[in-house]
Design brief:
Strand content: 35-45%
Radius of gyration: 17 Å
Distance between the termini: 30 Å
Number of strands: 8
Structural class: alpha+beta
Shape: globular
Largest sheet: 5 strands, mixed, barrel
């Protein structure tokens, strides 16, 4: 094979398949601090991301889980199905990731098991969003 073709194949595969495969265990490197928010009159858990999670920040990742449709067109990827998800008290905030979809044409079925590819954003400021957000997300 000629060197140009080999280079092209390696470059193309890096672009198309260049995501890091992760599991929910990889997102467990996180601790939470309870902070009282006056405007809400309640305590909120704020994340402190560990070095393993910080290493994944801004990287294109692929992770499998269950789709939860929280509102029309607002999807969460969860470690467990709806009956045992974070919102039902069966896990912590590290067991879900908010999906910011690459296209409005993408839709899912509740509790569908999928692998999602997206850029991992760590959120430790906006209390109205998840701690993990997959930006430009799409099903693999």
């Amino acid at each position: 094979m000629n060197k140009t073709l080999i280079f092209f194949m390696l470059f193309f595969s890096k672009i198309c398949f260049g995501q890091i495969e992760i599991g929910w265990k990889d997102l467990e490197d996180i601790e939470f601090t309870e902070t009282f928010i006056d405007s809400l009159d309640e305590y909120i858990l704020f994340p402190n991301f560990g070095p393993e999670v910080l290493e994944l920040s801004g990287k294109k990742v692929a992770i499998s889980g269950y789709i939860l449709e929280i509102d029309i067109g607002y999807y969460i990827l969860s470690k467990g199905p709806f009956a045992s998800c974070f919102f039902c008290g069966a896990g912590g905030p590290e067991t879900i990731a908010e999906l910011s979809l690459k296209s409005d044409d993408i839709s899912f079925v509740m509790d569908e098991f999928v692998t999602i590819v997206g850029v991992l954003k760590l959120n430790d400021e906006d209390i109205y969003r998840c701690n993990y957000i997959l930006e430009y997300a799409y099903p693999k």
